[in-house]
Amino acid sequence: MRTHFFVLFLILITPVHATEQWVHAASPNPLTYTGFGDAIDVLDNWMVIGDPENDDQAIDGGAVHVYENSQGQWQLFDTLYADEADNFDEFGSAVAIERLHDTGEVWIMVSALGDDDTGSDRGAVYGFQMLENQPITYEVKFTGDTFSRDYGSSLALNYDYVEDISTYLWVLVIGDKSAVRYVDPNNPNGGTRATGDATIYKRSGGLPWEQEPIQGLVTLDNLGTNDQFAASVATDGIYVVAGAPFADNSALGNEGVDTGAVYVYVRSGITQTWSCCSTIRATQTTRGARFGFDVDVAKQFNDNVYIYAGAPFEEDLSGRRLGAAYVWSNGNLIQKFQPTVIVGGAGENFGTSVSANGDAYFGTTEFLVGAPLSEDYKGRIYQYTFNPDYNGSNDVFIERQQMVADNRNQMPWDLGQFGKNVVTDGLNHAASSESTYLGSHKSVYTKEAPIFKDGFD
Questions:
Q1: Are 338 and 430 in contact (CB under 8 A)?
Q2: Is 308 helix (H, G, I), strand (E, B) or coil?
Q3: pLDDT digits (tens, 9 = 90+) for 435-455
Q4: Are 352 and 371 in contact (CB under 8 A)?
Q5: Dihedral sign (CA 34, 37, 38, 42)
Q6: For residue 361, what are the CA distances in angstroms to 30, 44, 437, 454?
Q7: What range does the record give for the signal peptide (predicted)?
Q8: Where are the domains of the chain?
Q9: What's the predicted TM-score (pTM) here?
Q10: What are phi and psi of 199, to 5 degrees?
Q11: Are 92 and 82 in contact (CB under 8 A)?
Q12: What is the Cα–Cα distance from 240 to 400, expressed in whole angstroms?
């Protein structure tokens, strides 16, 4: 088993825009370039880190490192590998973790984009379970079909009470950004196209995982080849949100190319199916903005459901690729966010990653947005919180502070792209950093945030 080094957390606050430094908590050992940190997720005292280019079991066979927080330090608990790992399986391409807080039951979902079970490199998803005070065990494997191409390119996992059917459910969403979909031949662009697709599973009690039916998929018939539908996915158990960052907006003509879109599924408690899909598009965006590059959904203050989406390639009037993030609730645009610090000539790519939390066990008033190109690839993360002076006509969220990597001025992390991936559960924040120097390793940074119990109380 590999040993990882850890460091204590340092904080630096500046008077204007409060800027906090995150110290890297986990790095691969030996310090070689792998996929360490290409995917991350965090929940309570557990953090999972994808390492899809790991060679322990096979060339690029992949691995997932599971860390446990012990007295403020993240320590390696276990390393997971694909069953019968093969070369280029890329196990760890995407990860998701969820916990049933009252019993301690944990599920970890892991993608292996190069898995060959249903065809060459079509992908698969592995499910691991951990019961209280028990080791992690491999339990289930999800595979696509002959139409799959990148099965597991995105993952979302949630456990919550579903009021419509009066039960607690685990919900798993598996995205496949390159899946081939059959389009109604009566559609002018009928036939098959590699638009992307999403699959939804549920689990109740101790029953096996089962796929859930989806109605209304005809609403996706206008998607085009390489729109990358479900390149990012999120769920709160009632809604499923899927980003399609390369979708075109035909209403804008040539300016609508690759502006992106977000699609929303809703659970129907009566029919026990999912209804697809309402469409959200960014307003006043620019060609190639890639809205939906990353998405999240969370129930926050007053039990309102908020949908978050990034558009990291959106440009300003001067053609600078600053990026943007958007928040919706009840079908309405609530607020648009843009970076407040613009440093360097590389742009910001603000909105590359977005993360919010709706876990009632922790509660939260905040969400995070990554800007990995800030300061010429050093990277930056923005943290927003609910506006205590919100009166219905001003901004719902205000900027709380910004976070940067503690080693951003040291080679190789001066090109670290801190914030390329960012996650939060309301208690912990985590982000990955990827040096662009040849042969350099990657790191994952953490910051434990205060618990905001019961939302805004």
A1: no
A2: strand
A3: 767 666 788 888 754 433 332
A4: yes
A5: positive
A6: 37, 10, 41, 8
A7: 1-18
A8: 149-284
A9: 0.91
A10: -120, 140
A11: no
A12: 28
